[in-house]
Amino acid sequence: MKKTKKSTAVNSGIDIYSSTKRHARHAKVKPANRQKRIIIILVSIIAVLALLFGGAYWYLNDLLNNVNRGETYTPSELGVNSTLEEHEVINIALLGIDTRTESFKGRSDAIIILTIDKEHDKIKMTSIARDSYVEIEDRGYDKLTHAYAYGSARLAMKTINENYDMNITDYVTVNFFGIADIIDEIGGLTVDVDESERYVMNTEYVPELNRIGIPCEKITKTGPQHLTGAQALAYSRNRYSPGGDAARTGRQREILSLMFERVKKMGISKLPGLIKMALGKCETSLTNNEITSMATWALTKSPTIESLSIPDEDCGEKSGDDAFIGKYWYSIYDLNIATQKIHDFIKEEGTYLKSQETTSATN
């Protein structure tokens, strides 16, 4: 059993509401905030994939000694009371932190349940909206993103476990602002860009990336072309071309899929540099043996990747003025429905029975 350490709470002086004011409609979220979240999500997923597909044991074990080791906790400290414990899956909290420093303090702007499903040979990613209106220990109802700010990884995991009836006891925390370098490290990506995408990238996203310190050249042509890391970021963040947010999500999946395929095909001599870069942006409670075991499984089984976003249209998410409480906007939806969908997605059985009552946040 892992040695239990006491949780280190984040400085209570953090202004957790500094970036939470919203327009009346969800679709009008500021591009800068969208940009941060998408960068965080992309960095988080490729960092974990680099851990899972990291090459031979002797390389991986040596490189893993460079990872930032976080605190570990017992199931009771994390509110674990889930029927998922009985199934052959490993659930890990993947937390993308909104910070430009080397520290791992701030809000978790990306919250993903990463599932290693050995029974079905799949890697599953369940993204949960950062603004989800959930109950946080000793804080009442608040945004899910604030749990990490209030109590670091322990409180973030406990909040996910208690609101979605999960069994998470391990985490990977990742800083963002490195995705462009990672894509460049794997040699860039070939993407088919249409005229609308080219125009939006050049007018909305390339200038923004340059402003925040990620050098990005404009796209000069349409059609299949090789994109740098920064250009691939601009492409994946586009939500103004036809199709809106749904098309943007498709672009994100496309970029992640292309990155995943590139990593799998990289020669072993190039993997250590990529792994070292990714590890420098991570903090985790996982041991070397645990990560190596997952990597060995991934390399031998070649699992497929599936994804789920919460909330979806079935969860009854509120919109417009109904999604405001006071002056702050929240993602308010039925947590019971969301919990059912998460468990059905992870277990693939459709037989989930709640181990505890999950509070609905629709009222």
Compact description:
The protein is α/β, with parallel strands linked by helices. About 40% of the residues lie in helices and about 20% in strands.
List its salient traits.
363 residues, alpha/beta, seven-stranded mixed sheet, 13 strands, disordered N terminus
Q: Would you kindly provide a written description of the structure presented here, covering whatever features stand out?
A:
This protein is an alpha/beta fold. The protein contains 10 helices and 13 strands. It has helices at residues 31-52, 57-64, 145-164, 179-185, 195-211, 229-237, 244-265, 271-279, 288-301, 335-347; strands spanning 68-69, 89-97, 108-117, 122-128, 133-136, 140-143, 170-175, 189-193, 223-227, 282-284, 304-310, 324-325, 328-329. The strands form 4 sheets. A 7-stranded mixed β-sheet has the order 1-10-7-2-3-4-11, sandwiched between helices. It has a two-stranded antiparallel ribbon with strand order 5-6. Strand 12 and strand 13 form a beta hairpin. Helix 1 crosses helix 8 (271-279) and helix 5 (195-211) packs across helix 6 (229-237). It is globular and about 55 Å long. The termini are far apart. Mean pLDDT is 78; it is low at 1-14 and 18-28.
Topology diagram in text:
Blueprint: H1 31-52, H2 57-64, E1 68-69, E2 89-97, E3 108-117, E4 122-128, E5 133-136, E6 140-143, H3 145-164, E7 170-175, H4 179-185, E8 189-193, H5 195-211, E9 223-227, H6 229-237, H7 244-265, H8 271-279, E10 282-284, H9 288-301, E11 304-310, E12 324-325, E13 328-329, H10 335-347
